[in-house]
Amino acid sequence: MGVYQASVDFEPVIWARLIQAPKAPIAPEAARYLLSIDFSEADHARMRELMDKSGDGALMPDEKAELDGYVNIANVLSVMHSQARVALRKSGFEPLRATRNT
Fold it and tell me: Which helix (H) or strand (E) holds 102?
């Protein structure tokens, strides 16, 4: 029997499937909490730095892995936020708009 080595690229796909098929409606309080989860300004700065280096073709392998991690997490976060906004609208609430300055 061989050992299965999972790729990190599969993780956001698995998370997206889990998040897109909720077993119960998301409560408004939980939806608001999910919408409050976001990257810090330091993380945004680091992502910009990594994307700039990537555009210049200057990423080291560990930096590429870091950038891939940010992208994967951002994709999962996007799905979570989308589901939270839908849940709030279904509950009769309007989701708050992000006020972060980037």
Answer: none
Q: Which residues of 3-34 are buried (b: 16+ CB within 10 A; e: fewer)?
A: eeeeeeeeebeebbeebeeeeeebebeebbeb
Rounded to whole angstroms, how far apart are CA atoms 61 and 59?
Answer: 6
What is the rounded CA–CA span in Å between residue 88 and residue 85? 5
Two tokens, residue 75 = 């994709």
Query: Is this structure's pTM higher than 0.70?
Result: yes
Joined tokens for residue 77: 């976060």
Element (H, E) at 87: helix 61-90
68, 54 in Cβ contact below 8 A? no
Burial classification of residue 70, based on how many CB atoms lie within 10 Å of its CB (0-12 exposed, 13-18 middle, 19 or more buried) = middle
> What are 56-73's pLDDT values in tens digits?
999 999 999 999 999 989
